[in-house]
Amino acid sequence: MAKRRNGDIGRVIDSLRFAKHETVILFVPSHDKSSPQKPVENQALWAQRALELFGRLYGGATAFKNLEGIWKDERDRLLYDQPVMVQSLATRSACEDPGRLHKLFTFCTRMRRETNQAVVAVVFSNVIHYVTEFGDAS
């Protein structure tokens, strides 16, 4: 009698074909857009709020700290950043729910404004959305 192990390659391939989950990622910025040397003083608070929001919207999340990033601004300057990445694995239906999207984009708009960012980046699986104002995610 053959045993099926959790690491069965066939099951993994099948799960990818019929994926019902999406990866949702939000980046909490570390620096102010108008002064790349000015840190966002309340980054840890925004990361905590994002974790709590993802917990309510998607059932859980993980925050990754100590990241290094770079961003090219509208003046073609390369700006270094140490963002906190908040990630959740969510059901596709949760990602497509208009009420949850409304809460997520409202949060992103508020964080963008209060941390003085040009945009806030949200990723659904492999698609990045730049939120400037609620309703403007492209």
Note down, in words, how this protein is organized.
With 138 residues, this protein is of the alpha+beta class. The protein has one domain (18-131): Alpha-Beta Plaits, CATH 3.30.70.120. It is 34% helix and 27% strand. It has 4 helices and 7 strands, in the order αβαββββααββ. It has helices at residues 9-17, 43-58, 92-96, 98-114, and strands at residues 21-28, 62-64, 69-72, 78-81, 84-91, 120-124, 127-131. The strands form 2 sheets. The protein has a 5-stranded antiparallel β-sheet with strand order 2-5-1-6-7. Strands 3-4 form a two-stranded antiparallel sheet. Helix 2 (43-58) packs antiparallel against helix 4. The N and C termini lie far apart (53 Å).
| Form type | globular
Order of helices and strands: HEHEEEEHHEE
Which consecutive residue ranges, at least 5 long each, have pLDDT under 50? 1-5
Structural class: alpha+beta
Overall CATH class: Alpha Beta
CATH fold annotation = Alpha-Beta Plaits
| CATH 2nd-level architecture | 2-Layer Sandwich
Q: Which helices and strands occur, and which strands form pairs?
A:
Layout: H1 9-17, E1 21-28, H2 43-58, E2 62-64, E3 69-72, E4 78-81, E5 84-91, H3 92-96, H4 98-114, E6 120-124, E7 127-131
Antiparallel strand pairs: 1-5, 1-6, 2-5, 3-4, 6-7
